[in-house]
Amino acid sequence: HDGTGIGVAVLDSAFDYLQTALGGSTPKNASCPGCFNPVVDYMVDIAGVTGTGDNDVYPAPATPSTQCTGSYHGTGTAGIVHRYAPGAKLFMVKVIKDGSTSTYTSTMAAGVNWCVTNQFVGTVPIRITTMSIGGGRYFGDCPSGVVQSAYDNARAAGIVSFQSAGNSGFD
What we know:
Layout: E1 7-12, E2 40-45, H1 73-84, E3 89-94, H2 105-117, E4 126-131, H3 146-156, E5 160-163
Helix pairs in contact: 2-3
């Protein structure tokens, strides 16, 4: 299956949606409801400069101090999803501020909750979320808290969620 009819929300850092492989044009968003991108169905910046979201997930211009901070990590992650599911529509959900390599758990949860609340905002429904964020070593499960609650909401809405392992060197 090539993903046709499925929306995949990639929750990550900035996304260079002008890359040819990712559609090459501005995706639909709250500030530009008439925009169209053939690969990316919708974009939203949950992290934003003030934490309230600015509707654009494009990376800030790289500087010597930010060019290797992961600001383009979302581009790579979205590219991997598109490579293996070329028929899926991507939803770019930025949960890491430009120039940063980390985010708050509340921002991660807000991103997942945005996917649940806006599951039908695009041309296809969000059926999958994927997040590739490191964060240290954990020795148990996370049965409580805002992130667990967000994923419980996603599961109840029929959204399957995937997380990476080992981004910080731990498997």
